Amino acid sequence: MRIMVVCLVTIAAASCHEQVGRLGSTSSGSAVDKKATLCAKLGDHYDLPDVTFEVRGPLTIEEVEQESLDQLDKVRRADIPVRPFGFEGEKWARIKSRCRAGDEFYFFTSDERSWSYLSGTRGYIVVRGMDIIDAIITGMN
């Protein structure tokens, strides 16, 4: 009888594990997992282990450039070049030139606490697979 119970419990557990694995591989689940992984990697990338990050994306190149231009419109200054990322436009051009098919762009920002402690940062990252391959900073304090 004990052997039968152990077998049934093992079968039920394996079945549940398999079901959870299938549920976790849905596109929305994997997108959430990817964003969580990227948030953790941002802490490592910027050597800010106690800071929480948020990411938004994936974004297209066109969306990133439009967001950059929208931000520049808010702080109109004659000395800022009118192009995506203003003074950082050349860096943005280099980042785009190194991109491959399948690379993704994400906006990121550090948590409110980091901004209040003058260690906030935000910008865009380029992600290949699960690796951050480049970044452009749009704000920091």
SSE diagram, text form:
Elements (H helix, E strand, L loop, with lengths): L1 H23 L2 H19 L7 E7 L1 H14 L14 H10 L5 E7 L1 H5 L4 E8 L2 E10 L1
Antiparallel strand pairs: 1-2, 2-3, 3-4
Question: In brief, what are we looking at here?
Answer:
The protein has 141 residues and is α+β, with helices and mostly antiparallel strands. Helices cover 50% and strands 23% of the residues. Strands 1-2-3-4 form a four-stranded antiparallel β-sheet, sandwiched between helices.
Residue stretches low in confidence (pLDDT < 50, at least 5 long) are: 1-26
How many helical stretches?
A: 5
Q: Please give the share of residues in helix.
A: 40-55%
Series of H and E elements: HHEHHEHEE
Strand content: 15-25%
Side-by-side strand order of the widest sheet: 1-2-3-4
Number of strands: 4
- Rounded to an integer in angstroms, the radius of gyration calculated over CA atoms is 21 Å
Your description of this structure?
With 141 residues, this protein is of the alpha+beta class. It contains 5 helices and 4 strands, in the order H-H-E-H-H-E-H-E-E. It has helices spanning 2-24, 27-45, 61-74, 89-98, 112-116; strands at 53-59, 104-110, 121-128, 131-140. Strands 1-2-3-4 form a 4-stranded antiparallel sheet, sandwiched between helices. A hairpin with a 2-residue loop joins strand 3 and strand 4 (131-140). The longest helix has 23 residues, at 2-24. The chain is globular, with a radius of gyration of 21 Å. 14% of the residues are buried. The model is unreliable at 1-26 (pLDDT under 50).
